[in-house]
């Protein structure tokens, strides 16, 4: 069967084309996962819907309340080049820029990273930690959903047929807030995360007053680890609090043994990364 | 089989071609367009041998649909030299920064984009910028040195 | 100083004009502009595409193959199976170099059984790649799935599934396909004299050569004569193997060497060429075939994984008195692992009176191994050099001092046979000992990171063998040199340096080409670290013949005796005043009169070269370890190597740096991972983790030139020994950082952390 390629200029057209293709439609954002899957015969789309010609999906906007709306098809490199985003959300930006090589960073998008449904996608734990939501639009209209609610399992999403992730919404920041993302990979670049950890927090006179922790590659989906956040909140991020938060991360892990890491390794490293990531975020937020 | 008609610009020249919807830019470059300087080392974006520029940004042409080139500016290794070699090309020759040469077009495309963005990169910056360009022959030593030496020459010449 | 900070500069070591100079390679401009034609870049009018159907099973009897649906598929022009390939019966060995055609004919396409997941079963040629791939799916293969065995230790067990009933060990069917033994003295007596004895076992995983260019070829058959463009380390090997496997005589096959995108030994055999040839013959169309990266990993040779045991005995004063090693190597599905390299090179750097070295060649349901840079030697050296480190520690000696005390030198009898002539091993250790790298203290532990330093040495045989060259003087006095070896790493530049030096002319006046099989005489593989060594010999002799002709022509012009003419600085001159007074004649002037003085000027030489002599190296490595994540990074690396004479220092350094980088990958991150179904689980550059540029530091190389007395320029082979020491050098450095020894590669983060946690418990 012939494959169709469409590059609509409006979201409505894209949704119509995507819905018309029913199950055989695939969204093309950066293409860095889709083309590999097509080549390996994992997917054989009937219609490829390129969403990069749609303004809303390719722009970054700072909202009036100080939040950000990031189009789902913005590449990691464009995120990094935004003058304000890196200052307010350094963890989100660094996570999106850890995906693949320089060549891939110019293409790969947070929307694609989320919708690929991999528990190891780097930008997802950072978005979860950031309390980001996504705006989704489909044949039945628009809705908003917390990022951590989007994945259902490896390669599976809680989206209705025909729905497209349009943008990410990052909330306004309280004073003394920042975030960070660290991942463990065997090499220095070019690997899939064996464990990924995003931490977003607010510091007030050396005390952590708010925190969120996202963990990647340790369960079928990216995890929001509330127990770890609880251990950090109210503490001065002292060794005892960090150890408690690290233990909570390790306890939350439900990993697998695979070619990239073992259960024991992932479980331990989740805790190690939590400590390191929290300290970086706190430093950025103005120090302990 | 209806082919897609694509109008694009390659190395500054207008270019038209026909392709299948699922065909990669790399396949079209190497096949109908005869631009075989971009190499296929993996087909999955892991080696960088097929690196080209899309509107000035480096991309793996194996991870780009040919149809996406419509209305865009593509740059390939064939467009890197003018009447004379680009300083990076010349330095790679003088420094023996290639052995088998299969990764070289991709490395050069990536290095050129780096120096356009950052004329004074540190060794660390060069190494991380080029991390997506696998080389199995050189251990990268002479490649990294050649890029940094070229950057220094180009800064001095300015 | 040269480009590499600490490299000595051979160009200052002599008054040569071109030998030892960093000239620009003749093929360079094409390679930096994208114009160089590699095998996959070649096309022909009417060309169609070939694709291979591969076995999904690691071990299965092939009961039947029905190709009728594929043949009927629109666009399909030919289909082939093992029936179309010449069958070499299993009871009679037919050797081509180190390859047995019995195994080769079964490796390029499964015959009785599919022996690994990815083993070719059939091939299709069709008008497009897509149609060929679709048609492959229409081929119906009936398999009887058999039990399989992947790992070497499992394969050696008495109850292991047997791959080949005809392979017998101690009169019983076995997966042990061969053994090799080296003996010197009496190890029993030797160990009795030892004050300290250390015995350890080691495991390594198969690693792939990792060339960036997948295998590719284009074959055209016209009037029964085949032309092959392909990526290989030897066009003559391609021709000979294709002749064997297709039944064509060699004169009906012309093998043209395309530019080759890396080989490292992995392209010393063929995979696609005979299939494309048969498909081209059947279809009447030129057939192009390329492997995907997945196919490269699944079905082309990695090198062996291994299980080895090494035992060393030394006296209190630090003298080795006995050594014993057992090296069990995976051959893959068909016999032929590099046990000679493992068992032969393992103890070769040392003067040890009593040695027993034993190798087992073991088949299992993996792709057949191919040569990889000093085949087998890194596996042997890994165990030996790790035990050397432990022994030095036990004896409270500096590890380099301990090696120096036991280093082989001129006159040492090696267990694998030779008595060494002048070699430069001692110099590599002495240079390492006094080098700033070794004398600079390691960083102190900080930010939770730990630091360690390790050293190791290594040996590789090097090789001579058959080479041919032709040197022709053009009408304008420029020169064309043709040799028969594919140039992978700059050997054309070395050939040009030598020719220009001997003729005394400008390097730029020399062009160097690689001849195809119908242009130049037989030349053995680009492999064994032999090309610069052997081609220098034939090029030197050819050029000397040309000089004799040039003197004769000058003599004819001057009407004097040729003996009264000398060749100096690119000119013919009268030998002295008695010869007569004549203005010197340049190469150009003589060339211009060539027709009048006897015709074209040129000469060739063909030799089976000998005297290659072994290569030695010592490496020093510093690592940083993150003990909480188990990550090891190499911070500093220096390789010391006796190269005999560096004809082109940049490409000598490049070989050393490239070998070290491959060793770092082998030690830390590269491995073949199989799943429980016996299939390779990481057939991509994403999960087969070769070092990327941000993983490595600068790789310093210190070139030592202790000329090989048996070579006109003093050359020793260079390319392979750099991969021999790194595995142990890094392993020893990790021990130095962590205080825990690792006996298994790769030292991946989960493995490091598991070992550290065991120690903590």
UniProtKB/TrEMBL annotation, chain A:
Domain FAD-binding PCMH-type: 1-175
Entry keyword set: FAD, Flavoprotein, Oxidoreductase
SMART domains cross-referenced by the UniProt entry: CO_deh_flav_C
Pfam families xref list: CO_deh_flav_C (PF03450), FAD_binding_5 (PF00941)
Tagged with keyword Oxidoreductase: yes
Name listed for the protein in its UniProt record: Xanthine dehydrogenase family protein subunit M
Organism: Reyranella aquatilis
Lineage, top ranks: Bacteria, Pseudomonadati, Pseudomonadota, Alphaproteobacteria, Hyphomicrobiales
TrEMBL record, chain B:
Annotated ranges, domain 2Fe-2S ferredoxin-type: 4-80
UniProt keyword list: 2Fe-2S, Iron, Iron-sulfur, Metal-binding, Oxidoreductase
PROSITE patterns linked to this entry: 2FE2S_FER_1, 2FE2S_FER_2
Organism domain of life: Bacteria
UniProt xrefs under PANTHER family: OXIDOREDUCTASE WITH IRON-SULFUR SUBUNIT
Name used for this protein in its record: (2Fe-2S)-binding protein
Taxonomic source organism: Reyranella aquatilis
Automatic annotation (TrEMBL), chain C:
Pfam families documented for this protein: Ald_Xan_dh_C, MoCoBD_1, MoCoBD_2
InterPro entries to which the protein is assigned, alphabetical: Ald_Oxase/Xan_DH_a/b (IPR000674), Ald_Oxase/Xan_DH_a/b_sf (IPR036856), Ald_Oxase/xanthine_DH-like (IPR016208), AldOxase/xan_DH_MoCoBD1 (IPR008274), AldOxase/xan_DH_MoCoBD2 (IPR046867), AldOxase/xan_DH_Mopterin-bd_sf (IPR037165)
Bias (Polar residues) ranges: 1-15
Gene3D superfamilies per UniProt: Aldehyde oxidase/xanthine dehydrogenase, a/b hammerhead, Aldehyde oxidase/xanthine dehydrogenase, molybdopterin binding domain
UniProt-annotated stretches for the region Disordered: 1-26
Highest rank taxon of the organism: Bacteria
SUPFAM superfamilies found in the cross-reference section: CO dehydrogenase molybdoprotein N-domain-like, Molybdenum cofactor-binding domain
Domain Aldehyde oxidase/xanthine dehydrogenase a/b hammerhead: 33-147
PANTHER family assigned to the protein according to its UniProt record, in alphabetical order: XANTHINE DEHYDROGENASE, XANTHINE DEHYDROGENASE SUBUNIT D-RELATED
Name listed for the protein in its UniProt record: Xanthine dehydrogenase family protein molybdopterin-binding subunit
Organism: Reyranella aquatilis
């Amino acid at each position: 069967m012939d494959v169709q390629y469409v590059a609509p200029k409006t979201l409505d057209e894209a949704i119509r084309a995507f819905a018309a293709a029913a199950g055989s439609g695939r969204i093309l954002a950066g293409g860095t996962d889709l083309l590999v899957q097509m080549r390996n015969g994992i997917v054989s789309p009937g219609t490829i819907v390129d969403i990069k010609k749609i303004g809303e999906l390719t722009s970054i906007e700072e909202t009036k309340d100080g939040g950000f709306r990031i189009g789902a098809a913005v590449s990691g490199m464009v995120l990094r080049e935004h003058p304000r985003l890196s200052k307010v959300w350094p963890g989100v930006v660094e996570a999106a820029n850890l995906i693949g090589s320089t060549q891939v960073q110019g293409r790969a998008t947070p929307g694609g990273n989320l919708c690929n449904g991999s528990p190891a996608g780097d930008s997802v734990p950072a978005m979860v930690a950031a309390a980001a939501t996504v705006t989704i639009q489909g044949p039945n209209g628009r809705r908003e959903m917390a990022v951590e609610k989007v994945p259902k399992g490896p390669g599976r999403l809680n989206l209705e047929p025909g729905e497209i992730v349009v943008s990410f919404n990052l909330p306004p920041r309280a004073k003394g807030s920042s975030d960070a993302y660290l991942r463990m990979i065997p090499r220095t670049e070019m690997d899939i995360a064996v464990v990924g950890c995003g931490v977003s927090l607010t510091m007030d006179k050396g005390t952590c007053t708010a925190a969120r922790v996202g963990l990647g590659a340790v369960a079928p989906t990216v995890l929001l680890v509330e127990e770890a956040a609880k251990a950090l909140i109210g503490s001065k991020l002292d060794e005892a609090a960090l150890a408690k938060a690290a233990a909570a991360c390790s306890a939350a892990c439900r990993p697998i043994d695979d070619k990239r890491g073992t259960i024991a390794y992932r479980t331990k490293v989740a805790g190690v990364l939590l400590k390191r990531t929290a300290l970086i975020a706190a430093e950025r937020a103005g120090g302990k | 089989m209806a082919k897609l008609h694509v109008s694009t610009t390659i190395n500054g020249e207008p270019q038209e071609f026909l392709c299948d919807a699922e065909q990669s830019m790399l396949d079209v470059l190497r096949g109908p367009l005869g631009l075989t300087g971009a190499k296929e080392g993996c087909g999955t974006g892991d080696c960088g041998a097929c690196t080209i520029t899309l509107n000035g940004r480096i991309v793996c042409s194996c991870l780009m649909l040919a149809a996406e080139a419509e209305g865009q500016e593509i740059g390939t290794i064939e467009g890197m030299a003018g009447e004379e070699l680009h300083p990076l090309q010349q330095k790679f020759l003088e420094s023996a920064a290639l052995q088998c040469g299969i990764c070289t077009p991709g490395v050069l495309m990536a290095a050129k984009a780096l120096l356009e963005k950052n004329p004074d990169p540190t060794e660390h910056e060069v190494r991380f910028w080029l991390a997506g360009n696998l080389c199995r022959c050189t251990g990268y030593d002479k490649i990294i040195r050649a890029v940094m030496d070229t950057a220094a020459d180009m800064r001095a010449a300015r | 100083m040269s480009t590499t900070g600490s490299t000595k500069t051979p160009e200052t070591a002599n008054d040569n004009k071109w030998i030892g100079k960093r000239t620009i390679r003749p093929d360079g401009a094409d390679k930096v502009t994208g114009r160089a034609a590699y095998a996959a870049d070649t096309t022909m009018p009417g060309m169609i595409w070939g694709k291979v159907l591969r076995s999904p099973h690691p071990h299965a009897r092939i009961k039947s193959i029905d190709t009728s649906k594929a043949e009927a598929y629109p666009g399909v022009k030919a289909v082939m199976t093992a029936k179309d390939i010449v069958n070499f019966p299993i009871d009679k060995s037919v050797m081509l170099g180190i390859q047995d055609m019995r195994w080769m004919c079964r490796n390029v396409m499964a015959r009785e059984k599919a022996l690994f997941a990815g083993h070719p079963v059939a091939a299709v040629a069709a008008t497009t790649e897509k149609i060929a791939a679709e048609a492959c799916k229409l081929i119906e293969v009936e398999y009887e799935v058999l039990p399989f065995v992947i790992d070497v230790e499992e394969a050696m067990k008495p109850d292991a599934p047997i791959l080949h009933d005809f392979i017998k060990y101690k009169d019983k069917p076995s997966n042990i396909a061969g053994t090799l033994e080296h003996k010197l003295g009496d190890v029993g007596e030797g160990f009795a004299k030892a004050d300290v004895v250390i015995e350890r076992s080691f495991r390594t995983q198969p690693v792939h050569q990792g060339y960036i260019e997948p295998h590719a070829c284009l074959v055209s058959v016209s009037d029964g004569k085949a032309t092959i463009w392909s990526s290989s380390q030897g066009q003559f090997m391609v021709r000979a193997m294709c002749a064997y496997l297709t039944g064509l005589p060699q004169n009906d096959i012309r093998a043209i060497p395309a530019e080759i995108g890396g080989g490292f030994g992995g392209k010393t055999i063929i995979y696609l060429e005979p299939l494309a040839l048969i498909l081209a013959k059947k279809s009447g169309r030129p057939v192009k075939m390329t492997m995907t990266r997945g196919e490269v990993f699944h079905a082309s040779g990695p090198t062996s994984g291994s299980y080895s045991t090494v035992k060393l005995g030394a006296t209190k004063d630090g003298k080795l008195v006995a050594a014993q090693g057992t090296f069990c190597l995976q051959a893959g599905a068909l016999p032929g692992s590099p046990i000679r390299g493992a068992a032969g090179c393992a103890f070769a750097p040392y003067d040890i009176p009593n040695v027993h070295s034993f190798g087992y060649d073991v088949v299992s349901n993996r792709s057949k191994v191919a040569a990889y840079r000093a085949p087998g030697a890194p596996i042997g050296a890994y165990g030996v050099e790790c035990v050397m480190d432990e022994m030095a520690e036990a004896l409270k000696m500096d590890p380099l001092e301990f090696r120096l005390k036991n280093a082989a030198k001129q006159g040492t009898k090696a267990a694998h046979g030779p008595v060494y002539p002048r070699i430069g091993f001692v110099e590599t250790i002495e240079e390492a000992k006094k080098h700033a790298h070794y004398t600079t203290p390691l960083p102190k532990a900080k930010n939770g990171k730990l630091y360690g330093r390790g050293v190791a040495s290594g040996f590789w045989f090097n090789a001579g063998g058959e080479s041919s060259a032709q040197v022709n003087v053009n009408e304008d006095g420029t020169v064309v040199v043709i040799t028969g070896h594919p140039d992978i790493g700059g050997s054309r530049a070395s050939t040009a340096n030598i020719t220009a030096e001997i003729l005394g002319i400008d390097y730029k006046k020399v062009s160097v080409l690689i001849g195809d099989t119908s242009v130049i005489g037989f030349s053995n593989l680009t492999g064994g670290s032999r090309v610069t060594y052997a081609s220098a010999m034939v090029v030197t002799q050819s050029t000397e013949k040309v000089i004799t002709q040039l003197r004769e022509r000058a003599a004819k012009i001057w009407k004097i005796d040729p003996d009264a003419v000398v060749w100096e600085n690119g000119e013919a001159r009268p030998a002295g005043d008695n010869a007569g007074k004549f203005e010197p004649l340049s190469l150009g002037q003589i060339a211009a009169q060539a027709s009048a003085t006897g015709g074209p000027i040129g000469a060739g030489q063909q030799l089976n070269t000998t005297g290659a002599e072994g290569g030695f190296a010592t490496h020093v490595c510093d690592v940083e370890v993150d003990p909480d994540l188990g990550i090891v990074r190499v911070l500093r690396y220096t390789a010391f190597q006796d190269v005999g004479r560096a004809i082109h220092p940049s490409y000598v350094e490049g070989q050393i740096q490239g070998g070290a980088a491959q060793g770092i990958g082998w030690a830390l991150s590269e491995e073949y991972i199989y799943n429980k179904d016996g299939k390779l689980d990481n057939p991509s550059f994403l999960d087969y983790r070769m070092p990327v540029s941000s993983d490595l530091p600068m790789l310093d190389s210190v070139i030592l030139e202790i000329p090989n007395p048996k070579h006109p320029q003093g050359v020793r082979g260079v390319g392979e020994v750099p991969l021999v020491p790194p595995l142990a050098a890094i392993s020893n450095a990790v021990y130095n950082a962590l205080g825990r020894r690792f006996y298994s590669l790769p030292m991946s983060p989960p493995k490091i952390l598991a070992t550290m946690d065991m120690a903590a418990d």
